[in-house]
Protein: Membrane protein
Organism: Propionigenium maris DSM 9537
Amino acid sequence: MIFKIPLESYESGSKMLSLFLGPVTVILAVPLYKQLDLLRSHLFPILIGVTVGAITSIATVIILGKVMGLERVLLLSMAPKSITTPIGMELSKNIGGIQAITIVGIMITGITGAVAAPIICEVFRIKNRVAKGIGVGVSSHAVGTSKAIEMGEVEGAMSGLAIGLTGVATIIVLPMVLKVLYKFLI
C-alpha cells in the first residue's frame, strides 16, 4: 500500500521465505526441547505473560492510533502487528483490515523489537532469561527472536515458544479486545 506493491507481488516474493519456514521451525524447536524443564517450571507465568502481552499489544495500538486520529480500517489493520505474517494477514482480513498495511506493521514491529529489546532489558534491568525471551517473542515475533537467540540459548528458546503462543493467544483475545474497545473504534 505505502510502496504500491500489490499483495500478489509480496506473496510471490515471499515464497522462498516460506520454503524455509519448516526447517526454521525445527531449528527453533531444538533449543526449546533443551529447555523443557525450565519451560515446565515457568509454564503458568509464561502463559499469563503471553496473554497479557497479546492483549496489551492490541489495546495499545488501537488506543494510541485512535488518539492520533487514525481511521478505523487502519486500527484494525495494525491490531495484529505482534504476530507472524501469515496469522496476521488472515486475522486482518477477518476483522476488516487491509492486509498490506498489516504486513508493513508486522515488519516494522519485528525490526523495532529486535533493535529495542537489548536496550529495554538493560534500562529496566530485566535479568530473568525466561522473561527476556518471552517478552521479545511476544512483542516482536520471528525478527525479535533472532535477536533473542543472540542474547542467549534460554532467551532464544523462550522467544521461539512465545511466537506460537502469541499467535494462538491473539486469535483468541483479538475479538474480545475489539468488542471491549468497539465504542472507542467508532
